[in-house]
């Protein structure tokens, strides 16, 4: 028998994160969108909850409880509050989890304590490249060995770049395989250009140029091509879960509005066109969520989840945009006004198909 109920511990986590999203994230989501960065108080409060730290090794101060499914549940609830702030809160995992899994003991000792300290320290992952034919598994950014160093060259985009970050994980091609390198943000040859985006404005991102960036050999993750592909699978599952959270938020706000908004003496929710649209939105969200859970469960079992992760990501990309657009339509003219949430949700998911590398669980 298949059981879709979360465990008692997962249910407690869901409720805790949902309350945090409602009480702390929702009230400041518009402020973050307008200012271009998440409020420090919110990410610091989230850090105290240990949402990322719980998955890092106990030997370095983490909880040692790594689960892609639990991570997906957390990502959905945070993104239900706001997608940009959710990605900011989860950003330490972008290089923290790969270092924990594949970094040398010296690299772990250098990177992980900073992510597990008293203050929030954001993380960063340079994966996506600004090319129409970009293939996540075949980047044009390169790494070549030069004595006891590696030299990195290339161009990355949509790289999370929150204030206070120390390192960025760069994925590049070494020969015919993928390789990951932990690069200090102040490394020589590293240049950044802030990106101006349609959505996810509350998460600062940059275009990252690597021009002969030299990093010591120990900065390279001891990860095979298959290991990095599994990391990308995890990223897709995390992003898909965040997309579900955003879609759910868009659905709920439009459902509630439809119940309250009256025309000709009746709530518009009683109109067949609106009722059917809302029903379709709810069905699509539940179906996409099951794909996310299936992929996360496969990851936790140690199975090859590439196909499932890609299906979940692609389906969520479509569903999130469809639902957010539907919410704008339910609101009518109000859906385009910044006083209401639908326009924010729509902008945030408009480029979801290109968000690879903004989250990891």
Précis, in short:
This protein has 361 residues and is α+β, with helices and mostly antiparallel strands.
Fold and architecture overview:
Helix content is about 50%, strand content about 15%. The strands form three sheets. Strands 2-3-7-6 form a four-stranded antiparallel β-sheet, with no helix packed on it. Strands 1-4-5 form a three-stranded mixed β-sheet, covered by helices on one side. The chain contains eleven helices and nine strands. It has about 350 residues and is of the alpha+beta class. The longest helix is centred in the C-terminal third of the chain and has 36 residues, at about 225-260. It starts with 7 loop residues before the first helix and ends in a 12-residue tail after the last helix. A hairpin with a 2-residue loop joins strand 2 and strand 3 (about 150-160). The protein has three domains: about 10-115, Acyl-CoA dehydrogenase/oxidase, N-terminal domain (Butyryl-Coa Dehydrogenase, subunit A, domain 1), CATH 1.10.540.10; about 125-220, Butyryl-CoA Dehydrogenase, subunit A, domain 2; about 225-355, Butyryl-CoA Dehydrogenase, subunit A, domain 3 (Up-down Bundle), CATH 1.20.140.10. The radius of gyration is 20 Å and the shape is globular. The mean pLDDT is about 95.
């Amino acid at each position: 028998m298949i059981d879709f109920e979360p465990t008692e511990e997962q249910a407690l986590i869901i409720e805790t994160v949902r309350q945090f999203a409602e009480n702390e994230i929702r009230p400041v989501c518009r402020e973050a969108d307008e200012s271009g960065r998440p409020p420090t108080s919110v990410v610091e409060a989230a850090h105290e909850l240990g949402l990322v730290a719980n998955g890092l090794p106990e030997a370095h101060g983490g909880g040692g409880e790594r689960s892609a499914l639990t991570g997906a549940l957390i990502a959905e609830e945070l993104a239900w509050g706001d997608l940009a702030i959710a990605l900011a809160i989860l950003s330490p995992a972008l290089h923290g989890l790969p270092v924990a899994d594949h970094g040398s003991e010296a690299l772990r000792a250098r990177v992980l304590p900073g992510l597990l300290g008293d203050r929030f320290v954001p993380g960063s992952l340079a994966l996506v490249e600004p090319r129409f034919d970009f293939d996540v598994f075949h980047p044009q950014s390169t790494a070549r060995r030069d004595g006891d160093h590696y030299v990195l060259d290339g161009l990355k985009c949509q790289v999370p770049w929150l204030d206070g970050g120390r390192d960025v994980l760069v994925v590049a091609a070494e020969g015919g395989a993928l390789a990951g390198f932990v690069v200090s943000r102040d490394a020589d040859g590293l240049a950044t250009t802030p990106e101006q985006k349609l959505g996810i404005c509350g998460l600062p991102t940059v275009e990252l140029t690597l021009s002969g960036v030299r990093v010591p050999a120990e900065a390279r993750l001891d990860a095979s091509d298959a290991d990095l592909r599994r990391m990308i699978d995890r990223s897709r599952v995390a992003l898909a879960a965040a997309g579900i959270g955003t879609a759910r938020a868009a659905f709920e706000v439009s459902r509630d509005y439809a119940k309250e908004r009256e025309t000709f003496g009746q709530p518009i929710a009683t109109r067949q066109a609106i009722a059917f649209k809302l029903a379709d939105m709810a069905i699509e969200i539940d179906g996409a969520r099951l794909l996310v859970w299936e992929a996360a469960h496969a990851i936790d079992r140690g199975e090859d989840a590439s196909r499932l992760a890609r299906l979940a990501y692609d389906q969520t990309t479509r569903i999130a945009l469809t639902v957010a657009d539907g919410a704008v339509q339910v609101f009518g003219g109000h859906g385009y006004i910044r006083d209401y949430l639908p326009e924010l949700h729509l902008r945030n998911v408009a480029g979801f198909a290109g968000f690879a590398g903004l989250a990891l669980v």
